[in-house]
Design a protein that fits this description.
The complex is a heterodimer.
Chain A lengths: L1 E10 L4 H11 L3 E10 L2 E10 L5 H13 L4 E6 L12 E11 L4 H11 L3 E11 L6 E12 L4 H15 L2 E6 L1 H7 L2
Antiparallel strand pairs in A: 1-3, 1-4, 2-3, 5-7, 5-8, 6-7
Helix pairs in contact in A: 1-2, 3-4
Chain B lengths: L3 H12 L5 E8 L9 H16 L2 H12 L3 E8 L2 H4 L5 H18 L3 E8 L6 H16 L3 E9 L3 E3 H17 L11 E5 L20 E7 L2 H14 L5 H29 L4 E8 L10 H6 L10 H19 L8 E2 L7 H8 L5 H8 L5 E8 L4 H17 L4 E8 L7 E3 L6 E3 L10 H5 L3 E2 L9
Helix pairs in contact in B: 2-5, 3-9, 5-6, 6-7, 7-14, 8-9, 9-11
Classes of the chains: A alpha+beta, B alpha/beta.
Chain lengths: 186, 457
């Protein structure tokens, strides 16, 4: 059984998901997972699909590109690899880390570098830009959902994040995800 | 995935609206420490408290860190000392209070409650010893808090106890005259005291409770006020029914936070979780005031006509929201109106908008009662007792908890200011129509009988 990962990028418009799924259907590919998002005016989606035995990945990619060209979309495809030796992720707890501050370059790389150093895995990331009402400056709010390994030194992790946030001129908060669930979800 | 709105509104509640867990209280039963020998009793209660509570502060801080929500106060409540130490004399009770104080200091908690006697139907030996010890016990200790239950709907009002408390409060104030009668800020007189209270100054661990238990007191007047203001700004046509719904939802959120944190603290300390007490309890900080909620609902100040209706709405909405958030709600849930501890209420009293009489009316619908009310220093003990009796009557007839925390400020008159420091705040002394007008009534003594529970009007 072969699976492929297909990503589609382009300017958002109605009919993109319909077009992609029609082409996959015509080629007897079954979509198993899909996610999409829209950032500003740009559309991005990732599909995981199961392919029939007699279909080559190059053929599928060229049919996708041909079919999506008229919509101005870019398609990419890779075979999904199974890595039997891939180590299982360490036991971790879900945290939400939020930074708020003036927009500038290097905010995400600065913070995520610390997360990577402590082997904290980002499961979701969203950056929101908001224009301040009293100035022309833009504030950026970046929300990271992160699985933090239980075994690490949490104090050191927090301190390293706070120090980096200070350097970047950001307000940073770290909270266990349960608090958001408790407040907002019954 | 969490939505942006869920994340951002939580951060807003935390940062700008003073969302916190007000108190985690470790309840410790001292009944198994009972002994006829004072030294043995003292050693045993000291050992038990310090053993069970040694990790309390650290664990609360760690859990607060994990959730990004601070646990502001860590406290201890113990079994009523008048029961656990029933054999002791008043001089010995003072020694017990000192031991409690030392244990509290040792484990780093800011208050220890439970210097308590329950005398609604009459006095036992230990009760009288404890009450007699109160003035000195509360002035030589820093962190010990006391509560005396003098009335209940089922027993009526023990007017001998009421009279005794009038005198005791007066004496306790004189013992701490240089601190504006601070001892009285640590002493509550109750009617219908709940079986267990995790909130100071009335806190104690009830007789039906486990050996040790974690109770959590959540608060958030700032969160409620901001929620109302934000909603009214975006939807100017909101009526009181809709506003009540907003308060309810906010109380729900705040309570959920408290229970989550309380349960984790309990689990880490290997102690059962008890209840979440969902009270709107103010602090003397701007933006953390119950009084400000009255203004956000269109009243010029707490104390003006309309205040009792607003407080009734507020109290009920808080209870409804909290009751849905947690199956284990208890203590004194509702809205507190401690005069000195709330910047806005204290200001209303200073401006004369909030009289003693209006405060008393408010207590018929608030969480507890006449709380942190500064009175003139020359007030007669019988007048203090009469104020207590009035407040007890409201509780007894209406089957609710009421209490007084009255502070006759030595050497100061109505209109002057009393300072208690820290979270206890400061207040302008409220005028009282005194002239020993209640003396003969209070001296009658005896017990006002329990009211009938049918024929209600």
């Amino acid at each position: 059984m072969r699976k492929v990962v297909i990503s589609v990028l382009g300017t958002d418009r109605p009919g993109i998901v319909a077009a992609v799924s029609r082409i996959l259907g015509e080629n007897h590919c079954n979509i198993e997972n899909a996610t999409q998002t829209i950032l500003q005016t740009e559309f991005a989606a990732i599909f995981i699909a199961r392919m029939p035995k007699d279909l080559e990945t190059d053929d599928l990619l060229s049919r996708l590109r041909r079919g999506l060209k008229s919509l101005g979309l870019h398609a990419f495809l890779k075979s999904m690899e199974t890595l039997p030796d891939f180590p299982s992720p360490p036991e971790s707890e879900p945290f939400v880390i939020t930074t708020t501050g003036p927009d500038r370059q290097g905010l995400i790389s600065g913070i995520t570098e610390i997360m990577a150093r402590f082997r904290a895995n980002i499961t979701n990331l969203k950056a929101l830009y908001r224009k301040n009402t009293d100035s022309t400056e833009r504030t950026t709010v970046i929300i990271y959902e992160v699985d933090v390994p239980v075994q690490i030194d949490h104090q050191a992790f927090r301190q390293a994040l706070r120090d980096r946030a200070d350097d970047l001129g950001l307000d940073l908060s770290i909270q266990h995800r349960d608090i958001f669930e408790a407040i907002h979800r019954v | 995935m969490l939505s942006d709105r869920e994340v951002l509104s939580t951060l807003e509640m935390l940062k700008n609206e003073h969302l916190d867990v007000r108190t985690v209280t470790l309840g410790i039963s001292l009944l198994d420490c009972a002994s006829h020998e004072l030294d043995r009793f003292k050693n045993q209660i000291h050992r038990k408290i310090t053993l069970l509570a040694k990790e309390l502060v650290r664990v609360c801080d760690e859990v607060g860190d994990k959730y990004g929500i601070p646990v502001v106060n860590k406290r201890i409540s113990v079994s009523p000392i008048a029961v656990a130490g029933a054999v002791f004399s008043s001089a010995q009770m003072i020694e017990v209070a000192r031991t409690l104080d030392e244990a509290a200091k040792e484990v780093g908690v800011d208050f220890i409650g439970g210097f308590t006697a329950l005398v609604e139907k009459g006095f036992a030996k230990g009760d009288l010893s404890l009450i007699e010890a109160l003035p000195e016990a509360l002035s030589v200790t820093e962190r010990v808090c006391a509560s005396i239950n003098v009335a209940s709907t089922r027993a009526g009002i023990n007017m001998n106890a009421v009279r005794l408390m009038g005198q005791t409060i007066k004496t306790a104030a004189e013992y701490t005259a240089e601190a504006d009668g601070l001892a009285c800020a640590k002493l509550c007189v109750f009617s219908n005291i709940p079986q267990d209270i995790p909130f100071m100054a009335g806190a104690y661990l009830g007789i039906g409770e486990p050996d040790a238990v974690i109770n959590v007191g959540v608060s958030g007047p700032g969160v409620v006020k901001k929620a109302i203001e934000r909603a009214r700004e975006s939807r100017p046509g909101l009526d009181l029914g809709q506003i009540s719904e907003i308060i309810k939802r906010t109380a729900f959120k705040v309570t959920r936070v408290g229970e989550l944190i309380g349960r984790e603290v309990a689990q880490r300390l290997s102690v059962p979780f008890g209840v979440a007490d969902l009270s709107l309890a103010p602090t003397p900080h701007v933006g953390d005031s119950v009084g400000e909620i009255f203004q956000s609902l269109g009243l010029a100040s707490i104390g003006v006509p309309g205040s009792t209706a607003v407080l009734a709405l507020l109290n009920d909405a808080v209870k409804k929201g909290g009751a849905f958030a947690s199956s284990f709600v208890g203590g004194l849930s509702g809205a507190f109106i401690p005069v000195s501890e709330d910047l806005n209420i204290s200001e209303a009293a200073r401006r004369g908008l909030l009289s003693l009489e209006k405060l008393e009316a408010l207590t018929s619908v608030c969480s507890v009662g006449l709380d942190m009310v500064a009175l003139p220093g020359d007030i007669a003990p019988e007048t203090i007792a009469a104020i207590i009796a009035d407040e007890m009557a409201i509780g007894v007839i209406n089957r609710k908890t009421t209490a007084t925390r009255l502070i006759p400020v030595p050497g100061k008159k109505a209109g002057e200011r009393a300072h208690f420091g820290g979270l206890l705040g400061s207040a302008t002394i409220i005028p009282v129509r005194d002239e020993e007008s209640s003396r003969d009534f209070i001296r009658l003594g005896g017990r006002i009988p329990a009211p009938t529970q049918s024929l209600i009007n």
